[in-house]
């Protein structure tokens, strides 16, 4: 395990292009594997989670060639003809585990076992097993709800499924299963969550439409996949953006960031907190499913912050950035509250507990609640030691906290950042050298 110290920093300056989007890279690799003609993905994220996805599709029979962030996939077709009985190692990647289960649930008469690391073994799969069973698949999970689990593929029937929680992973799992199912499959969302799967499938010409909160996909016999370009991950960009906002005298240009409105809630929260982040974002779009992913350059400067409340429909639009909202809250004037975010308990760590314990250990005035946290802003942070608990977003949170702190932060388990942001430490160092 690596321990890295992040000292209080002088102004961060310069331009930065953070890594490609993890969510979209997973989806791009999976649809490429469902095709039979070769597909080239540019801007594929070469991080631990998305390398697990390339390994997973190789296990199922796809041929994969990677040169940096350019990946060529010769897929195995929607019916993954040659695969059976494999064990798929999803590593640390919840998104891979849940989306791939949807595709493989429709492989009639064939079984696949899913397993992963210690963190993945604590993450619930009943949330996808319930709708997949309703569609006709058989799924055996450990203790009824955890990995390792086996998916016994069956001929699937389309269903109408009302998501009990807003989860893009569950929505995407059911939509991918729907491609193979007889008839139409509809997923109803309680509130909007990231829509990368819908945008990608509709770009590929799959019959897919949205009516209010309901997204419907039709059966397809085969998938024709065009080349795919992946934008920069706003969830990764959020760390240097937060550092630019928090470190006195900073001015950064963060380039080519994906600003799909279902992902960019963090930018709206920054606006409310009074942060200076300038760049054109996508406005909320409730009608037809848009094709493709919008990008923008974001100009970021240090400035004072005020507390805010994040709750309700906004939560899924920045679910992975909520740890950073807690950190920003510690530097803000007044109180910052996050509520309605119990889903944080089911991530790579229990992010309510790990964020609250981690930031409190650095001197923040923060309390956990059942569904979020409350931070009393004190205008700064002392510093100390923060443990990542193997959670990439915690490791990067500690690093940003260190740069903005008075005494520096030692992050125990910094290597976890490789899950989503290869070269994270180098990027921060480069911005400090300008
Ligand atoms: O669909 C996706 O790519 C993701 C959806 C979210 O999870 P949930 O669907 O569990 O909310 C998010 O936290 C995760 O990092 C990626
Ligand atoms: C929750 C996350 O990812 P996953 O669910 O794919 O492990 C994340 O990246 O913060």
TrEMBL record:
Which parts of the sequence bind phosphoenolpyruvate? 22, 94, 123, 169, 351, 393
Question: Which pathway is recorded for this entry?
Answer: Metabolic intermediate biosynthesis; chorismate biosynthesis; chorismate from D-erythrose 4-phosphate and phosphoenolpyruvate: step 6/7
Tree of life domain: Bacteria
Q: Where is the Enolpyruvate transferase domain?
A: 8-428
Primary enzyme class = transferase
Keywords annotated in UniProt? Amino-acid biosynthesis, Aromatic amino acid biosynthesis, Cytoplasm, Transferase
User: What GO molecular function terms would the record report?
Assistant: 3-phosphoshikimate 1-carboxyvinyltransferase activity
Kindly give the PROSITE patterns that the UniProt entry links to this protein. EPSP_SYNTHASE_2
Where does the record place it?
Cytoplasm
Q: Which reaction does it catalyse?
A: 3-phosphoshikimate + phosphoenolpyruvate = 5-O-(1-carboxyvinyl)-3-phosphoshikimate + phosphate
Q: What is its EC number?
A: 2.5.1.19
Detail which positions bind 3-phosphoshikimate: 22-23, 27, 167, 169, 320, 347
Residues annotated as catalytic: 320 (proton acceptor)
Q: Where is this region: Disordered?
A: 1-22
Subunit details = Monomer.
- Describe the family membership recorded for this protein in Swiss-Prot or TrEMBL: Belongs to the EPSP synthase family.
**Job of this protein:** Catalyzes the transfer of the enolpyruvyl moiety of phosphoenolpyruvate (PEP) to the 5-hydroxyl of shikimate-3-phosphate (S3P) to produce enolpyruvyl shikimate-3-phosphate and inorganic phosphate.
Q: What is this protein called?
A: 3-phosphoshikimate 1-carboxyvinyltransferase
Report the source organism: Patulibacter brassicae
Q: Species lineage, top-down?
A: Bacteria, Bacillati, Actinomycetota, Thermoleophilia, Solirubrobacterales
Report the gene name: aroA
């Amino acid at each position: 395990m690596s321990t890295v110290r992040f000292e209080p920093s002088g102004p961060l300056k310069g331009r930065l292009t953070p890594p490609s989007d993890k969510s979209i890279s997973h989806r791009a690799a999976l649809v490429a594997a469902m095709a039979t003609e070769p597909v080239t993905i540019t801007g594929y994220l070469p991080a631990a989670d998305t390398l697990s996805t390339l390994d997973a599709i190789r296990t199922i029979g796809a041929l994969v060639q990677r040169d940096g962030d350019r990946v060529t996939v010769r897929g195995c077709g929607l019916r993954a003809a040659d695969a059976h009985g494999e064990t798929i190692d999803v590593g640390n990647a919840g998104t891979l585990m849940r989306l791939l289960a949807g595709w493989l649930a429709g492989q009639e008469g064939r079984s696949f076992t899913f397993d992963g690391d210690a963190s993945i073994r604590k993450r619930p799969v009943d949330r996808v097993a319930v709708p997949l069973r309703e569609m006709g698949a058989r799924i055996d999970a450990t203790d009824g709800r955890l990995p390792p689990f086996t998916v016994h593929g069956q001929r699937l029937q389309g269903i109408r499924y009302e998501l009990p929680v807003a989860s893009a992973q569950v929505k995407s799992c059911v939509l991918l299963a729907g491609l193979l199912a007889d008839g139409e499959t509809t997923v109803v969302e309680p509130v909007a969550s990231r829509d990368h799967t819908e945008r990608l499938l509709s770009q590929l010409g799959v019959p897919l439409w949205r009516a209010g909160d309901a997204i419907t996909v039709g059966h397809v016999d085969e998938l024709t996949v065009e080349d795919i370009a992946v934008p920069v991950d706003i969830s990764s960009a959020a760390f240097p953006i937060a550092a630019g906002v928090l470190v006195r005298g900073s001015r950064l240009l963060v380039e080519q960031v994906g600003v799909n409105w279902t992902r960019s809630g963090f930018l709206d929260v920054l606006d409310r907190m009074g942060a200076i982040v300038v760049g054109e974002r996508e406005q909320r779009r409730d009608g037809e499913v848009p094709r493709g992913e919008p990008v923008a350059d974001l100009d970021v400067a240090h400035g004072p912050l005020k507390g805010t409340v994040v709750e309700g429909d906004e939560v899924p639009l920045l679910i992975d950035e909520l740890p950073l909202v807690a950190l920003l809250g510690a530097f803000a004037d007044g109180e910052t509250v996050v509520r309605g975010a119990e889903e944080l308990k089911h991530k790579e760590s229990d992010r309510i507990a790990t964020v609250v314990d981690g930031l409190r250990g650095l001197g923040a005035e923060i309390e956990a609640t059942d569904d979020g946290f409350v931070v009393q802003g004190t205008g700064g942070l002392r510093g100390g030691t923060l443990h990542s608990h193997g959670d990439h977003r915690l490791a990067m949170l500690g690093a940003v906290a260190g740069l903005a702190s008075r005494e520096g932060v030692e992050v125990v388990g910094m290597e976890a950042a490789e899950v989503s942001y290869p070269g994270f430490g180098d990027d921060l160092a480069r911005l400090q050298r300008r």
